[in-house]
Amino acid sequence: MGNLSDKYGRRPVLLFALLGFGIDYIILALAPTYGWLFIGRIIAGMTGASFTTASAYIADISTNENRAKNFGLIGAAFGLGFVLGPALGAFLSQWGIRAPFYAAAGLCLLNFLYGYFLLPESLSKEKRRAFEWKRANPFGSLRFLRRHPEIGELAFCFFLIYLGAQAVQGNWNFFTIYRFHWSERMVGISLAVVGLLVGAVQAGLTRVVNPRIGNEKSIYIGLSLYSLGLVLFAFATQGWMMFAFLIPYCLGGICGPSLQSVIAGHVPPNHQGELQGSLTSLMSVTTIIGPLIMNNSFSYFTSPKAPFYFPGIHFLIGSLCMLTSLFLVYKVLSREKVEKPELLEVIEGMPAQQEVP
Q1: Does residue 7 surpass a pLDDT of 60?
Q2: How far apart are CA 21 and CA 36, in angstroms?
Q3: pTM above the 0.70 mark?
C-alpha cells in the first residue's frame, strides 16, 4: 500500500482502504459462519495498511517544525478510538450482537465519502515514482531499510520501542487479573484510562512540548519515561499503583512521533509511502513476536518451574528494550549532528538558528 501510494498518490489508496474496511464490516455483520469471519479479516488486513498511507500523507504536508506534532495526531486518534470504540460497541449491542459491525461499516463508508469529496491529494505528480512488485512485499519493504543505512539504525530503535510496548499491550489483561484479581470491568476501565492518557499526550502534550524542546530531547525524555513506567509496573504491589504508574508510562508517548519525524526527515517525498510501509511492517513483526516473548516469560516466572517468582518480569524485558533504544538513538543522533550538519534541523525539529550580524 505504501508503494502504491508513492506511485498513484495518497488519496486513491486511502479511499480504497476505507471502502475496503466498510466492505469488511458488512461481511462481518452478515457472516453466517466462522469462514466468512476469516474472509472479512483478510480484507481488513489488506486495507488496514491505510495507517501506512496516512502516515505518508502527514509526512507530505508537514515541515521539520510541525511533523512530530502532526504524527502525534495519529496516536491521539488511536487513543480516542480506544476509549469511544468499546463504549459505542457495548451501547449498540443492545440491538443485537451484529449491530456494532453495521455501525462500523457505516462509519467507514461515511469516512470514504468525506475523503472522496473533501480530501485533497498530498503528493504531486512530479514527486511520484514507478511502482515495483519486488519492493511491494514485507521483505522488500524491510530491504528498503537496508538500502538506506542512514535510517536503518533509527528504524531498529523504532522496532525496539514497539517490542517493549508489547509488555503492556500483549499482557496487561493477564497480569492485572492474575496479580490483583481485577474483574473484566476493572480491566476495561484501566484500558479506557490508557486511551484517555494516550490521547491527551499525543494530541495535547506533544503539540506543546515538541516545539519547545525539539525532536531529540523529546525522544530522550520519552524513552526514559517509558523505561521508568515499565519498571514501576514490574514492582507494583497494589492495583491502584498500576493507575498511578500509567502516568509516567503514557507521558513517554512524546517519543514516538518525534522519532518518526526524524526518520521521515531522512527520506525524500517520493519514498515516504515505502518508508512508512517499512515502519508499519516492523510494528507488525513486534505484534507477532512480542506476545510470544512477554506472555511466555510471564507464564514461566509464575510457574513452579521458575528459579524465582516474579510475575512482572515481562515489564523489565520491555524496559530493557526501551533503554537499549535510548542508548542506540543517542549514539546515532550524536554522530549525525557531527557528520551530517545538514540534518540538524531534522534532528532538532526546529528551524536552524540564524546568526545575528
Answers
A1: yes
A2: 15
A3: yes
The more confidently predicted of residues 345 and 184 is 184
Which three cell numbers mark 152? Answer: 536503518
Task: Please say whether the beta carbons of 52 and 6 come within 8 A.
Answer: no
**Residue of 202, 289, 299 lying closest to 250 (CA atoms):** 202
Single-letter code of the amino acid located at 202: Q
Angle, helix 149-169 to helix 138-147, in steps of 10 degrees: 130
Place of cell 495498511: 49
- Which residue in the block uniquely carries the three cell numbers 509516567? 248
Cα separation of 90 and 85, whole Å?
A: 9
- HSE on the CB side for 336, CA within 13 Å? 23
Distance of alpha carbon 123 from alpha carbon 166, whole angstroms: 34
Whether residue 3 contacts residue 51, with contact meaning beta carbons closer than 8 Å, is answered with no
Rounded Cα distance between 133 and 127, Å, is 19
Burial of 47: CB neighbours in 10 Å, binned 0-12, 13-18, 19+ = buried
Residue appearing with cell numbers 516545539: 211
Q: What is the mean pLDDT of residues 100-112?
A: 93
Structure confidence by residue, pLDDT tens digits, 24-68: 899 999 999 989 988 888 887 777 767 778 888 888 888 877 777
Q: How many residues does the chain have?
A: 357
Phi, psi of 111 (to 5 degrees): -65, -40
Query: Which whole number is the average pLDDT over 72-87?
Result: 78
Cα(189)–Cα(187) distance, rounded to whole angstroms? 5
> How far is 186 from 193, CA to CA, in rounded Å?
11
